[in-house]
Amino acid sequence: MEIVHEKHQLKDFVQEAFKAAENNPILIDRFINNAMEVDVDAISDGKEVFVAGVMQHIEEAGIHSGDSACCIPPVAIKKELIDEINNQTKKLALALKVKGFMNVQFAIKNDEIYIIEVNPRASRTVPFVSKAKGIPLAKIASRIMAGEKLKKFNLKDKNKNIFAVKEAVFPFNKFPNVDVLLGPEMKSTGEVMGIDKDFGLAYAKSQIASQNSLPTKGLAFISLKDRHKNEGVDLAKQLVKLGFKLCATEGTANRINKNGIKCKKINKVSGGSPHIIDVLNSKKIALVINTGGGKRKHRIQDATSLRRSSLINKVPYCTNMSTAYAFLEAIKSLKTKKINVKPLQEL
After folding, report:
1. Which of 313, 324, 222 is CA-nearest to residue 268?
2. Are 316 and 287 in contact (CB under 8 A)?
3. Does position 311 have pLDDT exceeding 90, yes or no?
4. 166 near 191, Cβ under 8 Å?
5. What is the largest CA-CA distance in the chain?
């Protein structure tokens, strides 16, 4: 599976796909850039539908749902859009005559809702939603499939005034030379969960549990695609406000410095030593934000080696802008609030 933006990329991918499986079909979907993805788990008995959880993905659409962090309840979706997602989920379940679980993946862009896929089965998010809501969803769905009715269980959406964040756990440190860049193919091998009344702390807890603990000070390194550089200026401002010093590759540093923010330039690997890998290996970097390398071979190699070195040196990193903003929220909360721990039973 691959996201392609230009004809030559599509041609290259099709050639590789036919080498791997000449007689199988190739499916092509339209990709929506900069969309927010939403996962929904529901239970239906064929007559009634209970929407168990609406989960907002932290990473933008294009990252496999199994690799994306997600939050319940959503933190950045308008109430009227959530209501419409609930309404569409119920209509889908009844139209498809689902008895038991159903999972729907939506995308939202410019307040318009798109359906990505509908699966009349349990999803990997069911255990997460069950813990977040305090409802034994698998047990109830099994009984529905055996012929019982939803109304017997008197199910209600339990709002516990908490945020629950699911984060994926990756095996990258077990496999040398594997790139940590996320995409449409699933790479994670597990998941963890962070819970708190504050979204920032819930997200920070999920990072601690997934061995990606976030710093509250130090030197932050930024390297962004051209289309992210304007957003990168705002990101840089917020990092400085939080007490971080900044360094970046030349193009990103130039954009940040032009806007009156102090940012030191650091060479890419292809620019010669001393370069970013040297600085990472000297343990001077506290945080890495890198959104990819471009189409040229040396740029791809630069970005891959940067991400790999971040992993080896155990430096927290993210590879897309939406995650970078979640990092900021978590760091703000870590600097201003105290982390508390509670058993699930006391939520």
Report:
1. 222
2. yes
3. no
4. yes
5. 68
Residue 240, amino acid: V
Helix axis angle for 250-258 and 229-241, nearest 10°, is 70
Residue that the structure tokens 């009227």 belong to: 80
Residue 125 per-residue DSSP state: T
Q: Which of these, 166, 196, 172, 188, lies nearest to 71 by C-alpha position?
A: 166
Burial of 345 (0-12, 13-18, 19+ CB in 10 A): exposed
Of 339, 340, 287, give the one whose Cα is nearest residue 314. Answer: 287
How far, in Å, CA of 263 to CA of 240, rounded? 10
Per this entry, what is the length of the chain?
347
Q: How confident is the model at residue 259 (pLDDT cuts 50, 70, 90)?
A: very high
- Integer Cα distance of 292 and 303 in angstroms: 6
Strand, helix or coil at 310?
A: helix
pTM of the entire predicted model: 0.89
> In whole angstroms, what is the distance from residue 43 CA to residue 103 CA?
9
Residues 331, 334, 336, 342, Cα dihedral to 10°: 140
Q: Positive or negative CA dihedral for 25, 30, 36, 39? A: negative
293 pLDDT above the threshold of 60 = no
